[in-house]
Write a sequence for this structure.
């Protein structure tokens, strides 16, 4: 706690106290200032919680708080917040301690007078309660699998309370969510034929396609449909000629060949000069 206070000093203040006193303070402050937005904090003051007051960047404050963790042993009856995996290798225990490993079905072998774990073992799963055998084994191995520290559970800003996961969103995430929302609005608008700004361009295009389809199937025509009708009558008029491409390819090949001949003549001249100096 002292390290957290020191890390936040100058930008933030950490307040820990009894929940009843904090709730009463929030109510009194809301009555004096008339700002009832603070009352939304009262339902959150349950359990072992505290308040961090800051005018700095909320994401930076969250990252600073997360830096300070203290290792904690696995105690009997504690609900595991994470998976606990015992790594392979030498345990430093003498062979008389193999009973702990046998109870937990951990494969071991004796190597140079010590018990060695052969493969990594998932000892405790997240959400399971720690048993007496698991706690005793982890204590003997000197493993402190859990950690303690402050965790940001909710964020209050200008009367709104939201999850701290929002602070991890980047600009790309926001743009992606915005595009996803626009796409849903467009799809819904097209499905129920309700005009919106998001669907307007698609409606115009679909309408143009319908009108063009009618013009193609009937004798009715207009300037934008004439080219389409002409293409459907004789597609060869719009085919890209290949003669020019073939001629350009031949020209390019001729240039390459002439270049190769020039290179060969230059190499012959260089070889003649070298032979001359050799004589």
């Amino acid at each position: 706690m002292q390290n957290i206070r020191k890390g936040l000093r100058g930008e933030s203040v950490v307040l820990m106290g009894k929940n009843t006193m904090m709730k009463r303070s929030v109510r009194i402050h809301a009555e004096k200032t008339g700002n009832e937005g603070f009352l939304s904090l009262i339902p959150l003051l349950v359990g072992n919680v505290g308040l961090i007051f800051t005018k700095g960047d909320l994401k930076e404050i969250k990252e600073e708080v997360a830096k300070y963790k203290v290792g904690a042993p696995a105690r009997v009856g504690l609900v595991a917040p994470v998976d606990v995996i015992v790594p392979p290798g030498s345990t430093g225990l003498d062979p008389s301690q193999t009973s702990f490993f046998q109870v937990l079905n951990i494969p071991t072998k004796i190597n140079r007078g010590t018990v060695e774990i052969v493969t990594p073992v998932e000892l405790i799963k997240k959400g399971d309660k720690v048993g007496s055998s698991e706690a005793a084994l982890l204590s003997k191995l000197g493993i402190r699998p859990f950690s303690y520290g402050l965790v940001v559970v909710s964020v209050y800003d200008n009367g709104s309370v939201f999850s701290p996961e929002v602070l991890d969103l980047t600009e790309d995430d926001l743009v992606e969510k915005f595009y996803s929302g626009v796409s849903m609005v467009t799809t819904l608008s097209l499905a129920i034929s309700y005009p919106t700004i998001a669907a307007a361009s698609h409606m115009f295009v679909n309408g143009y396609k319908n009108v063009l389809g009618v013009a193609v199937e009937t004798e009715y025509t207009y300037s934008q449909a004439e080219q389409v009708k002409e293409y459907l009558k004789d597609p060869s008029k719009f085919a890209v000629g290949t003669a020019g491409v073939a001629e350009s390819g031949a020209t390019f090949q001729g240039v390459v060949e002439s270049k190769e001949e020039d290179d060969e003549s230059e190499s012959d001249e260089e070889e003649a000069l070298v032979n001359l100096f050799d004589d």
About this structure: The chain has three domains: 2-69+149-168, 74-144, 172-237. The longest helix spans residues 243-278.
